[in-house]
Q: What sequence folds into this?
């Protein structure tokens, strides 16, 4: 066993092994502390201050944990792999906890003691106060019907908006500097002319409390390190612990002076963000190679750090991410995002603020770390620009072809143009990148929240049934006429447009209420310290304090709806293979007894993903409808709506709520994922796929997700690497936003499904993130097996 | 159809392919179709963006593409007009006029050499190899870019005599490199699908050791033989 452990040295090997083999548990510590704060202060202080005091109590009272041998310290829970709960967002019922404990996938140990505390102390206080409770209470009946039908999901019903990434300011300013800035803003408040001065004052004071709280948290780690040092026999570890203590004295109060301090500072900030609230996509250091380069270069030049020491620090840093499973999700949120991964997605490469190539020595060092560690978390990606050296892409390609799903690949020029189109400053765009799965953001300066997945294919099902959802029999949309009477394809498209508009309105109206709820009840004063310009505006992150505020609606199933529409157009209108009446009868029967027709549709229809205008132009039509209905709309906090095209795991859930579709898909099967073609219909090879995908106007989105799967042989040798580089460059030349590769063959996956115990370490790319194959539902496993294994010619 | 398998009476088949058109699952398929010059050119141009990235291009392959000499020449010309790199994979068993017809628009010939001995050649391939050898000289004389390749078929063309003669032919023409393509039996399935007899059912691909020995033999004859990548 010992020989197989990964990590550059014994220390890392042990830390990594512990991280991988410790079972996730649920910790009640945070819930108890927050409940105590609320009981003590609710109603006596402003809401921002209440949130700040809760944060302060957490930082002052939560158990401090320093693991044996580690160099970067601090855990979110009392132990590694211990996830806290956030009852103010989602107050789990006892049933929820039993499901979380007993479910086959993504389970957490929940002790009887935790069950008891939840029952006695948490539920009575929070069950009617939680955000989740209030969201569901305030949504209209119409919204609930659509939500239950699976027309859309709701991101904020049990996790908070986050969807943001750290910029560079923490590498040259400490918490004390932020406090000073807050002080200046407080003094500058104009209580005579600014009606909001009182609110701003509360928000600024709340931020200051949080800055102090994080300093306290670090000091407690320093104390703990000294305490352990005093009882450690081994000289070397004692020295290390004293060093750690000194570092925790320096940061985050003051700016970091060394790479070690920089990493530790970021880690405290990370813990602050994910402890304050259960933010989506946790948090992320973003452009890590850019941020660390100055420290690394100076220390290497001065001879106080070796490359191996830097690597060891980074590997220790990696383990910290993997120690924090995404807090347990339940219900539909679990279905749309069924994973322990919490989506911190580190960016490598890209360009510098002046537009020159950003690849540096730390970039290559990080690639080695990624390869060595092979951990689920953090996720990683490479940002490829025209200026990126080929060596960079090839080094990443060598890791990609090992087949565990990292890193994914992004197009810097597209990402920057997307941001410019959204009105961001060029330098902010260059300092940005992509996070979560594939989402474009101005790091350190933007709140770009995903509000929910939107089921584009479900809306077609409802259109074909005159506004009625067949599963529930409810009239959810307007009656747009009986398709049997449609004599032209455009009539169907018009009906679809009407239905789409109807459901988008319901979703966006719901969003407004939810956003207001967060702005009023759940500010995030700590996160506000980190993201510009919350301090400058004296406005909380959840109230629109960030420099840029963007809201996304994520379209899902573009391949499935395109192929469905293509089948209707081709077989009913062009070829007259069958009639409307026949098709609708087949759909109602889930193609039972009409397998021949189903096969004919699958094999003899122009499909998206084959570089075929017939199908691709339908994809463009649907994309533009969706885009035009969402893009540019304003949100409650002053944000602007945009679309992106990514699914996480929602394409499986969304498929499960739809009956048979005109593309020959059987009821309940997964939809196509991201902007990838329907599983198995892309028969013209990867270049045809990228050309079809590039017919979508990626620059109008905030991210698209394209998944290509290769068998390992395809990418072997220098020639295989070259082909990979060419495919990436060609797709990016056509403005493709993102591409990721699953390098594995179907037989291996089938074998893994049959004998999971033999494949415990098998990691596959799911959709914007990687996961253990064994952690995926059987449905999702099947779906990944079905995705075509391409061969590059 | 009988049970779970499809049986076709090939003797009554007029290759109208209506069966394939009406087969819903695609279990019966027509391999190959008639295309116009424009259709084929457009199909190749679909991959232009990748060719421009990789420096790759179109390779006319077969069978023997030069059997359709006029169409091949027109296609090559159309592709060159669109700045696409072109290659022709040929066994060289054509008249030298055919070579002349395609040469102006062909950037590279992938030229197959199997056997040199006239008797062996006609025994295994059914034709004499003299046009193949002449065309090789012809191409060299014309200054065309050539990559000579030898399918390595154990027991048939990997014997010492053939190696020596291939090597000396290459030397005579100033060619220093040879690509070895180890025999494989992946076509067996195609034969089965066409109800044709696969006549080398027991022939195994050469082992690594056999390939290495052939490489070594060529090397001592002054030819740099490399296994195909």
A:
């Amino acid at each position: 066993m010992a020989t197989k452990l990964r990590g550059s040295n014994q220390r890392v090997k042990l830390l990594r092994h512990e991280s991988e083999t410790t079972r996730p548990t649920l910790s009640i510590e945070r819930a108890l502390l927050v409940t105590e704060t609320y009981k003590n202060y609710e109603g006596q202080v402003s809401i921002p201050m209440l949130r700040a005091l809760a944060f302060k109590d957490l930082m002052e009272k939560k158990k401090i944990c320093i693991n044996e041998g580690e160099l970067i310290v601090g855990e979110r829970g009392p132990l590694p792999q211990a996830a806290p709960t956030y009852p103010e967002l989602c107050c789990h019922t006892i049933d929820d906890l039993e499901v979380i404990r007993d479910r086959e996938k993504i389970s957490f140990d929940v002790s009887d003691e935790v069950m008891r505390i939840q029952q006695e102390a948490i539920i009575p206080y929070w069950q009617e106060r939680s955000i989740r409770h209030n969201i569901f209470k305030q949504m209209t009946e119409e919204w609930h019907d659509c939500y239950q039908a699976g027309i859309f999901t709701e991101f904020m019903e049990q996790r908070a908006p986050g969807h943001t990434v750290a910029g560079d300011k923490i590498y040259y300013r400490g918490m004390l500097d932020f406090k000073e800035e807050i002080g200046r803003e407080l003094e500058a408040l104009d209580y005579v002319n600014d009606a909001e001065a009182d609110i701003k004052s509360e928000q600024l004071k709340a931020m200051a409390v949080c800055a102090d709280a994080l300093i306290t948290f670090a000091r407690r780690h320093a104390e703990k390190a000294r305490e352990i040092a005093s009882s450690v026999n081994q000289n070397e570890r004692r020295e290390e612990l004293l060093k750690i203590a000194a570092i925790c004295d320096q940061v985050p109060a003051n700016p970091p002076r060394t790479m070690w301090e920089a990493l530790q500072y970021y880690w405290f900030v990370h813990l602050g963000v994910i402890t304050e609230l259960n933010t989506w996509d946790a948090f992320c250091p973003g452009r890590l190679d850019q941020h660390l380069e100055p420290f690394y270069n100076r220390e290497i030049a001065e001879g106080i750090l070796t490359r191996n020491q830097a690597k060891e620090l980074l590997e220790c840093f990696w383990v910290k991410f993997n120690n924090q499973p995404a807090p347990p999700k339940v219900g539909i949120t679990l279905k749309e995002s069924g994973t322990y991964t919490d989506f911190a997605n580190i960016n490598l490469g890209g360009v510098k603020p002046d537009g020159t190539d950003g690849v540096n020595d730390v970039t290559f060092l990080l690639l080695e770390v990624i390869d060595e560690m092979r951990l689920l978390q953090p996720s990683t990606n490479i940002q490829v620009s025209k200026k990126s050296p080929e060596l960079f892409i090839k080094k990443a390609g060598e890791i990609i072809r090992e087949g565990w799903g990292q890193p994914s690949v992004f197009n810097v020029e597209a990402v920057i143009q997307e941001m410019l189109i959204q009105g961001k400053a060029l330098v902010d765009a260059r300092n940005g990148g992509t996070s979560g799965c594939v989402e474009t953001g101005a790091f350190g300066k933007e709140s770009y929240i995903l509000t929910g997945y939107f089921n584009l294919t479900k809306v077609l099902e409802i259109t074909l049934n005159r506004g009625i959802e067949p599963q529930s029999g409810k009239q959810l949309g307007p009656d747009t006429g009986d398709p049997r009477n449609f004599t032209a394809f455009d009539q169907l498209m018009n009906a679809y447009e009407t239905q789409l508009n109807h459901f988008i309105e319901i979703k966006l109206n719901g969003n407004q209420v939810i956003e207001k709820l967060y702005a009023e009840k759940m500010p995030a004063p700590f996160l506000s310290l980190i993201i510009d310009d919350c301090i400058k505006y004296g406005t909380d992150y959840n109230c629109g304090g960030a420099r840029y505020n963007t809201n996304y609606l994520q379209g899902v199933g573009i391949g499935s709806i395109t192929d469905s529409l293509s089948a209707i157009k081709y077989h009913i209108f062009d070829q007259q293979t069958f009639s409307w009446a026949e098709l609708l009868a087949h759909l109602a029967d889930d193609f039972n007894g009409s397998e021949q027709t189903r096969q004919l549709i699958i094999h003899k229809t122009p499909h998206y993903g084959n570089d075929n205008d017939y199908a691709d132009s339908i994809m463009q039509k649907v994309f533009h409808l969706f885009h035009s209905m969402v893009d540019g709309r304003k949100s409650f906090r002053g944000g602007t709506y945009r679309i992106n095209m990514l699914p996480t795991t929602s394409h499986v859930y969304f498929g499960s709520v739809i009956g048979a579709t005109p593309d020959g898909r059987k009821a309940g099967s997964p939809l196509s994922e991201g902007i990838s073609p329907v599983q198995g219909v892309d028969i013209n090879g990867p270049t045809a796929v990228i050309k079809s995908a590039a017919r979508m106007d990626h620059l109008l989105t905030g991210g698209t997700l394209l998944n290509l799967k290769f068998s390992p042989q395809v990418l072997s040798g220098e020639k295989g690497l070259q082909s990979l580089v060419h495919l990436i460059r060609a797709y990016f030349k056509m403005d493709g936003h993102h591409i990721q590769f699953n390098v594995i063959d179907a037989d291996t996956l089938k074998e893994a499904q049959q004998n999971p115990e033999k494949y415990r370490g098998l990691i596959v790319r799911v959709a914007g993130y990687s996961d253990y194959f064994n952690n995926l539902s059987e449905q999702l496993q099947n779906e990944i097996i079905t995705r075509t294994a391409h061969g590059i010619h | 159809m009988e049970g779970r398998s499809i049986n076709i009476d090939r003797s009554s088949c007029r290759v109208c392919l209506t069966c394939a058109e009406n087969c819903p699952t695609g279990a019966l398929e027509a391999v190959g179709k008639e295309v116009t010059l424009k259709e084929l050119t457009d199909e190749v141009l679909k991959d232009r963006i990748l060719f421009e990235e990789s420096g790759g291009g179109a390779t006319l392959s077969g069978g023997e593409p030069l059997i359709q000499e006029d169409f091949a020449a027109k296609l090559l010309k159309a592709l060159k007009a669109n700045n696409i790199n072109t290659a022709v994979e040929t066994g060289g068993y054509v008249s030298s006029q055919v070579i002349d017809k395609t040469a102006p628009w062909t950037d590279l010939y992938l030229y197959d050499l199997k056997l040199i001995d006239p008797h062996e050649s006609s025994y295994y391939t059914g034709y004499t190899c003299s046009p193949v050898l002449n065309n090789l000289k012809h191409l060299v004389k014309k200054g065309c870019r050539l990559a000579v390749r030898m399918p390595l078929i154990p027991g048939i063309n990997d014997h010492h005599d053939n190696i020596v003669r291939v090597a000396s032919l290459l030397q005579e023409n100033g060619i220093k490199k040879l690509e070895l393509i180890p025999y494989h039996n992946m076509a067996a399935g195609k034969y089965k699908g066409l109800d044709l007899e696969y006549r080398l059912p027991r022939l195994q691909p050469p082992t690594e050791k056999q390939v290495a020995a052939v490489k070594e033999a060529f090397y001592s004859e002054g030819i740099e033989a490399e296994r195909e990548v």
